[in-house]
Design goal:
disordered N terminus, binds FE2/S2 (inorganic) cluster
Length: about 140
């Protein structure tokens, strides 16, 4: 992907910006929409607290995340089709790992690192190679 000049400290600010705000994430292609509240600091988190992966996991939407959410693989690659502007900046580590992801697009992110600030709703596509992992709670 492109080179990133953003430092990692810029990622942290978006979490607090989400405080008190509820927004929605719709996951494609299933079209399932979840309501998202600010992350509970005491809860278990997959990836960064408040990340797309974290919110998906808490709603039984499974996105493969082989490294456990530490920006050390590219299995959690998703495409943020709408609402990308409300998400934190890409870190150098995320940028490096995205370079390994198949089907990379300009709206690609690692779900474990991408933290929306809650200012708008998101539409997130789970790529085809990861769709077998999608399930809903019954
Ligand atoms: Fe490995 Fe997100 S789970 S980079």
């Amino acid at each position: 992907m492109t080179e990133s000049t953003h430092d990692k400290t810029s990622q942290q600010g978006n979490v607090s910006a989400a405080s008190g705000k509820t927004y929605r994430i719709t996951f494609l292609p299933e079209g399932r929409t979840i309501e998202v509240s600010p992350p509970d600091p005491l809860a278990h988190h997959e990836g960064e607290p408040g990340s797309i992966l974290d919110n998906a996991d808490h709603n039984n939407i499974h996105i493969d995340h082989a490294c456990g959410g530490f920006a050390a693989c590219s299995t959690c690659h998703v495409i943020v089709k709408e609402g990308l502007e409300s998400c934190n900046e890409i870190s150098d580590d995320e940028d490096d790992m995205l370079d390994e992801a198949p089907g990379l697009t300009l709206k690609s992110r690692l779900a474990c690192q991408c933290i929306p600030d809650g200012s708008t709703d998101l539409v997130v596509e789970i790529p085809a190679w990861n769709r077998n992992y999608v399930s809903e709670e019954h």
